Amino acid sequence: MAEVRLGIIMNGVTGRMGTNQHLIRSILAIRNQGGVELVNGDRVMPDPILVGRNAEKVGALAKKHGVERWTTDLDAALDNEDDRLFFDAASTNLRVDLLKKAMDKGKDIYCEKPIAENLETAMDVVRHAAKTGAKNGVVHDKLSLPGLLKLAQLIEEGFFGRILSVKGEFGYWVFEGDEEPAQRPSWNYRKADGGGIILDMLCHWRYVLENIFGAVQAVSCLGATHIPKRWDENGEVYEADADDAAYATFQLEDGIVAQINSSWCTRVNRSDLVTFQVDGTKGSAVAGLHKCVAQSLGDTPKPVWNPDEPRTNDFLADWCEVQADQVFDNSFKVQWEMFIRHLFEDAPWKYTLFEGAKGVQLAELGIQSWQERRWIDIPDLEV
């Protein structure tokens, strides 16, 4: 058994998601467990170099977590032939040029989503990957969440019978930043910086819907900018002109209807920050990030509508928790391990830049639906 080094240029990991999910809970966790084991018994050991524009921030991050290599010079990092993989979690509006530059330097690619701000540039980077031969992947983290894995297992077992509908609720209250610091970066709320919840979340909903329930055939979406004024990381007021809420309906194959609300302007009164309720002829289930509860046809209560009397039955008590026969790892780490195996032994990997482009397509058509106030059919994509 040999240890194989994987040099990773990690760009944009000083942000919340990059630090917590990709650096600490994925790459450093993989290092702590002794690397990623391959079929032949070798173990791939990630060797990251952290890249950021702010030397103080990136240097402090590296020191805090014992990462030996860091730099503010991305070009120099890309010139290092010993580092094979370029990972990007920086701002969306910078991503396309960075990915193409890295591929031109012979790097393989792994990145966050959205992969671009519009479909044209998303497909441009897809074609660039084909031209350069770069192996590529886009984070599809929600598919590896325990709650959704349990939901997928119920589907595989035929628990639902014929699936009728999917109802998703995502979001929480993001503070404006004046009295309480905002828990999301200010660029999320500026159109010029690639912000907006439609572009952010419909990319997620496409891969969730298509990998678990069926192909998305049409979309109807209403966006909103509920809070037009916010305060940035320096306490300066700015115009928040990007959409901060989206109310979308999707038509899926086999007649399934999906409705998903996404909002940074809602207070949570549900079991998790995101929940998906699936209703079928033989049963229903509700999944969050980790937990999933189900109700079979035989356990379904028979309520009678009577607004004159208060309800006495506890509807929530009529659901049973779905148990798992395995221990689930961090969803981002799981995806990193899958992609690393793809890099070294061509293990199956379907979450490519092209799949990322499909997410951008749905977001773009969602925005078009909002602007034109109508349903939009989803055309097939061709490379």
Describe this structure in words.
The chain has nine helices and 18 strands. The protein is globular, with a radius of gyration of 22 Å. The strands form three sheets. Strands 17-16-15-14-8-13-12-9-18 form a nine-stranded mixed sheet. Strands 1, 2, 3, 4, 5, 6 and 7 form a seven-stranded mixed sheet that branches. It has a two-stranded antiparallel sheet with strand order 10-11. The protein has two domains: 160 residues, 3-Layer(aba) Sandwich (Rossmann fold), CATH 3.40.50; 195 residues, 2-Layer Sandwich (Dihydrodipicolinate Reductase, domain 2). The protein is an alpha/beta fold and 383 residues long. A hairpin with a 5-residue loop joins strand 10 and strand 11.
Please give the structural blueprint.
Blueprint: E1 3-11, H1 16-32, E2 36-37, E3 43-51, H2 55-64, E4 69-71, H3 74-79, E5 85-88, H4 92-104, E6 108-111, H5 119-132, E7 136-138, H6 146-156, E8 163-171, H7 197-212, E9 216-224, E10 229-231, E11 237-239, E12 245-252, E13 257-263, E14 274-280, E15 283-287, E16 292-296, E17 320-321, H8 331-345, H9 353-372, E18 376-377
Parallel strand pairs: 1-3, 1-5, 3-4, 5-6, 6-7, 8-13
Antiparallel strand pairs: 2-3, 8-14, 9-12, 9-18, 10-11, 12-13, 14-15, 15-16, 16-17
Helix pairs in contact: 1-8, 4-5, 5-9, 7-9
